[in-house]
Amino acid sequence: MTPDPGFGIYIHWPFCKSKCPYCDFNSHVRERIEHDRWRAALLRELDHYADATSGRRVTSVFFGGGTPSLMEPATVGAVLERIAARWPIGSDRGGDDLEVSLEANPTSVEADKFRAFRAAGVNRLSMGIQALDDTALKFLGRQHNAAEATGAIELAAKTFDRFSFDLIYARPGQSVAAWEAELTRALDYAVGHLSVYQLTIEEGTAFFPLHARGDLVLPDEDLAGDLYEATQSLLDRAGLPAYEISNHARPGEESRHNLTYWRYGDYVGVGPGAHGRLTLDGEKFATRAHRAPEIWLERVERDGHGAATPEPVAREARGSELLMMGLRLREGVSRARLAEETGRGLDALVDAGALDRLVKGGFLEVDEAAIRATHEGRQRLNAVLAALLA
After folding, report:
1. What is d(CA 210, CA 173) in angstroms, rounded to the nearest whole number?
2. Per-residue pLDDT reduced to its tens digit, 268-312
3. How many CB atoms lie within 10 A of CB 112?
């Protein structure tokens, strides 16, 4: 049975207290934010998308950024009230099962707001911990220390039924033994979900010129592979297997909102730089909003939204996007889902010779129901996809 990808709403809050040197997200530092004005703009753009998707049942809401825990809880509450007023919410089985996630940083001031966010309707917290080592946190440009991080996790556990946190590995000078010790400590706090990302250097970040000059040296390919394998092994033994390349969860604790992305479901993107995918009258459209916060705000106040003209996604491109997203998942991509999105079979969408070689090489598995990346395939997914979709 093909899983229902759901229908999500993503809310982008673009502001941070400071810009982390590894971050290439659409985040900005501002000394002053007009919260009432921003609240009104988010609600107005929500109305714009509600008009276009009337009747769709919302299964998840995700407040991302930036640092959404810098939002006023009243803004979160107003957004959720508007969503409930404009769309049916939760699954079609009935019951109050809408997943509402909010990203937070574990500084003491923001942690004090956790209870207010819970009262506003947030039922899942995702925290940007990134490391449990003070030296590493300083290197990563984080504003908290390890004690504040663990304190915030403990408060989250008392406040929310579901929570997760992020860690970054493959940092300069990091050994497998040191990472295993840090990850083992994290497992004292990780209850249902843990996201573990390998440090990458992206153009436009503060780390990029340092790396280009050779002043910042990451673990080589062999060590990075060993760190990845150590991560998978340790978390598997702890009962948090990877359901996606970088995301681990106990069964039933997976992020429903992110599963909507990876299963290539539809989602609305609201806020500066937010992207979306919407199926309207049988055609898939890519939506995107202007990245600059002030320009987005002015356009919403003038036009009711800050989005560019939606772009149709051709059926072949839909197949490629579905494979690029879905092969990140352990469950893989349903062949029925591919046919639904593209009107074509797997053989018509990929290079047959490459598919055969990848299967024989142990990187992909294909049966009548689905195509899946193996453990080895997920570790090398960029190369697998490049060969498969060439």
Report:
1. 15
2. 999 999 999 999 998 999 999 999 999 999 999 999 999 999 999
3. 11
The whole-angstrom separation of Cα 68 and Cα 250 is: 26
Distance CA 118, CA 128 (A): 18
pLDDT in tens, 214-242: 999 999 999 999 999 999 999 999 999 99
pLDDT band for 44, please (50, 70, 90 cuts): very high
Task: Give me 189's structure tokens.
Answer: 């706090």
Query: How wide is the angle at C-alpha 276 spanned by C-alphas 83 and 93, nearest 5°?
Result: 50
Q: What's the helix, strand, coil split of the chain in %, to 5?
A: 40, 20, 35
CATH superfamily of the domain spanning 7-261: Aldolase class I (3.20.20.70)
CA–CA gap between residue 74 and residue 36 (Å, rounded): 10
Q: 């996630």: which residue's tokens? A: 101
Q: What is the CATH number of domain 315-388?
A: 1.10.10.920
Q: How far is CA 367 from the centre of its chain?
A: 28
Cβ–Cβ < 8 Å for 128, 103: yes
How many CB atoms lie under 10 A from the CB of residue 243?
21
Residue spans per domain, the chain = 7-261, 315-388
Cα–Cα distance, 319 to 346 (Å, whole number): 9
Distances (CA, A) of 324 to 203, 264, 320, 384: 21, 10, 6, 10
Round to whole Å and give the CA distance between 45 and 376: 42
DSSP-H helix ranges across 238-288: 256-262
